[in-house]
Amino acid sequence: MAESYLMQAYSMMQAQEIPYYYTLVNVVSSLSRLYEQTGNDSMALKFQKKVTEYNGKLFDQKQALNAQKLEIQYEAEKNNEVILLRQKEKYNQVQRYLYIGISIISLLGLIFMFRAYHFRLRYSLQREKQLHLEKQEAELQTKLDKEEQLRLRAEQQLLETQQQQLQKEMMANVLQLEHKKQVFSQIKEKLNDSQELNINRIWNEELLLDNDFNDAKMHIQQVHPDFFGLLNEKAQQKLTPLDLKLCAYLHLQMDTKKIASILHIEPKSVRMSRYRIKQKLGLGKEDDLNIFLQKLG
Length: 297
Fold this sequence. Notes:
The protein is an all-alpha fold and 297 residues long. It has 2 domains: 2-84; 159-296, no CATH class. Helix content is 87%, strand content 0%. Helix 1 (2-15) packs antiparallel against helix 2 (21-38), helix 3 runs antiparallel to helix 4 and helix 3 packs antiparallel against helix 5. It starts with a helix and ends with a helix.
């Protein structure tokens, strides 16, 4: 029964297109041991050879399977390597694109920084130029203001000089009128009583030339209105018209001798009048009346 089963199995294994050599080796090995036990050495040897044959084929099949596995593994590894290479190439390509993008961005950043620096530099230069122009304009305006102040000061000094000159001319005219008045008075005294008509004519002319010092004072006040007003304010006692005339003569820087000649009085009388005017103005002995009148003017 063992022989029958084993032979049946052997026939079934051989009938397969590609037998399973591992099972076939086990079957023929069992048959070889069976015939060896039954004393059938020829059949035992026969199946032992089959064992050797089938072991060789099993070994070849295993080698083929191993080779196929290796080939499949190689192909798989190759495919994996290709995929890895493709992924690496794709990664490298992305990396190149990234580097190119970074390079472009860096280049654009450098260009922007250069343009910004150039713009700031140009703005700084323009600002410095504008500040320089503003400084020049300010200096020019300051210079013009100074020149304008100097011009106004010169005009003011010229006006003051003209005013002083007109004042002196007006006072000189007043003194001339006063002198004419004194001359006419002397002529009147020297005329004879028989020449009454001539006396009346001369007297009328004298009245026309300025009968009183009040009119002359009005003309002087038109040139320098504060002169007599300041005198009256400074005076501690009331000044007479004669005192005012003497102050006008002194303001014109006339000396005592000339004033005495104009007024037809002694120089001593002029000095006494000066002393009396100083007392009325509240000046001390050490004060100079001429300097006081010049400062007042």
